[in-house]
Amino acid sequence: MTELYSIPEVAKLFAVQESRLRYWMQTGFVGPTVRKNNRFYYTFRDLCAVKAAKDLLAAGLTPQKVRKNLEALRRSLPGDVHPALRMRVCSDGENVVAIADDVAFVPATGQVVMAFNLPALGGQIATLRKEQVEEAERGVTPAAPGVVETESTEATLGPTAYCSFMEACAAEDRGEIEEAERLYRKALEVDPHLAAAMTNLGNLRHRAGDTAEARALYEKALDHDPGLAEARYNLGNLLEDLGETELAISELVRVCQQAPDFADAHYNLGIALVRAGSKARARRHLHRYLELDTESEWAARAKEYLQQVAA
Fold it and tell me: Mean pLDDT across the chain, nearest whole number?
C-alpha cells in the first residue's frame, strides 16, 4: 500500500495552480512518478521535489538552476523517504544537501535560501488528510483517493516525445532555432496532446513572423489544456501585436485570474489597458506587477506607465 497524492491535492497542499503542476510535468521539470488508470499521482519523494521547486523559484533562481538543484535533491533523498524521517533539506541556490537528524547545516556561501523539514511537510499532509475526512463527513466527494495499490512507473508522456521536447528546449537555449522547431514538431508527432510543445513551437513561429500558425498552436494547446497559463499569456501577447486589443485583454485577464503571481501577465495586461484607456484597471495590474518584481528594468518601465496614468 503506497501513499499517493493527486494533482488537485498537491495543488492545494502547496498553493500552486494545477495548470502550473501540469506544465511542470509536461516539460519534465518536476512531476508525479506513478500512473494508475491513466491518472498521475505523486509520491512523498515527489512532493519534496515540488516543494523544493516552488521555494527555489520563489527565491529568484532561474529554471536551469532549479533543475540542477532538483537533480541533486533526488540523489540526496533515500528511496524510502517518508514524512517521519528526521531530515532537513537545505539549498544555497547552487547546491542541495539533505541531512539526517536535523544536524545544523551551513552552506559554503553562508546563505541558505531554501530549507524545510520533512516532518513539517508530513504535518502539512496530515492537515490536508484531516480536511478531506471532514469534507467526506459533510458529503463532499474527494477528487481522488489518497491511497492506491499500484506499482510505481515513470510518469512521462512517452520517452520519445519527452526526449524530443527536452532536446528542443536545449537547442533553443543554444540559439539553434531551426533544430528546436524540428524537435518540437517531432515531439508532437509522437504525442499530439503535448501542450507545452505546442506553446514553445508557437513562440518560435511568432518570433518568425508566422502569426497564423502561432495563433493556431496556442489555441490548440489551450484546447488540450485550458489551464495552461503560458499558452494563454502568449496568445494574449500575439493578439495585442495583431491589434486585437480587446481579445488580448480578455485572454490576459484570464491568465491573471488563473495564475495571480504571473508577473509578466500583469505587466502586459496593464500596458494593454493603458492603450485601451482603462486607467484604473491599468494601475491595479501595474501595481500588482511591482509587488512581484521590484528591481528589474521592466519594473522601472512599469513605474513610468503608472506616472502616465496617475489620477
Answer: 77
